[in-house]
Specification:
The chain contains one helix and no strands. By secondary structure, the protein is mostly helical. Helices cover about 90% and strands about 0% of the residues. The chain has one helix spanning about 5-65. The protein has one domain. The model has no long low-confidence stretch (mean pLDDT about 95).
């Protein structure tokens, strides 16, 4: 494939632009994933803490009887 210098330059610019867009999309996807991960982790920890508190309250009520 014989390309003129202008065609080569245009091809390289297009490749760089596409690569830059792909990196931006990937970073945005990673950020969304980790934000969701942190949210779900916080929800799980809150749920586990509430469950633990309920168990300890029930155990202390039975111990006081």
């Amino acid at each position: 494939m014989n390309l003129t210098p202008q065609q080569r330059k245009a091809r390289n610019e297009l490749r760089q632009q596409e690569a830059s867009e792909a990196i931006k999309e990937h970073r945005a996807s990673e950020k969304a994933f980790y934000e969701n991960f942190k949210r779900l982790k916080a929800e799980r920890q809150a749920r586990e803490a509430a469950q633990f508190q309920t168990k300890t309250q029930a155990a202390s009520k039975q111990a006081s009887k």
